[in-house]
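Quick question about two entries, pasted in order.
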Amino acid sequence: MKNKTQLFISVASVIIVFDVVASFASRLLHFDYGSLMWVTFCLYMVCGYLGFQYRQLLGGFLAGLMAGLADSTAGWSLSVAIHPYIQHSQPRLTVFTVSVAIVFVTLVGGFFGFTGALIAKGISLLRVEH
């Protein structure tokens, strides 16, 4: 990637495409959409790993935040519109619950992005030692 803006657009796009594909797959193949949460966390870490090259740990954290924000806004909206298969009934959405979910998922994205950046830092330190 040439710059941070390109990274953030790429991160958001990958997360949104994943949400759409996973939603359709869940609906068509009748498996619980929530079971893919671990894939989302891995994607957040990959985003952080890639973000590390721009601003070290802060870059990874910011890339994870961007991934979480894209996931909790556009990704969630598209997923809800597709109606993936979800085993458990969903609570009634209010402005408050949606706002809390957006903040929470964005912060979770930042956490896993930071974790991915820590992995990138560890790998870069290992390369320097050898």
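Here is the second entry:
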Amino acid sequence: MKFMLMMHAPRGNGDWGVADWAPGDVRAMVAYMHDLNADLKARGELAGAEGLTPPADARIVRAGKDGKPVVTDGPFAESKEFLAGFWIVECSTRERAYEIAARASLAPGPGGQTMNIPIEVREVGSAPEV
């Protein structure tokens, strides 16, 4: 079973304060995430993981009348949180996906305090046979 684990950061404008953290705190958080990813890879559970740029960099794309992309900077849902990054994990149970999400939530923040950042877990679906 594949699951997408989505890390939601506070403040929908993309400014969740990381730019204001002490350099050592940023390095500790990044090192924690690298260690988590390395462990998941060693277990054969990591299918992919990426951080995302802030919402200000996001765009909405629709096909225009000629099929070419029409790009706008919204509309976006009003939110106090935004998607900061994600993992795609492959594991045998939903409970294991929850364990991985809880571990990601433990990443250190400023002063080494656990961020307890929310991680949304959703099973990756498959398309019906055609």
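Reply: The chain has one domain: 22-123. The chain has two helices and six strands. Hope that helps.
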